[in-house]
Amino acid sequence: MAKLPILEFPDERLRTEAAAVETVDDEVRQLVDDMLETMYDARGIGLAATQVDVHRRVIVMDVSDDQSAPWC
Prior knowledge:
The protein is an alpha+beta fold. Helix content is 22%, strand content 8%.
């Protein structure tokens, strides 16, 4: 897994339209793993792929009290 840099407003890349994900393959699974690591490191509760400069319709989130229930 790898921590990814998070884009911040007003970065124009955040306005890029994200492409649909047709198939969940190993590449998408790796992206989800990397996004979860990045989100937890940033002490966040959610992250969209666009925020890490990957323009695909992927989100991760975990609103549990102990960060034990990620949702992708």
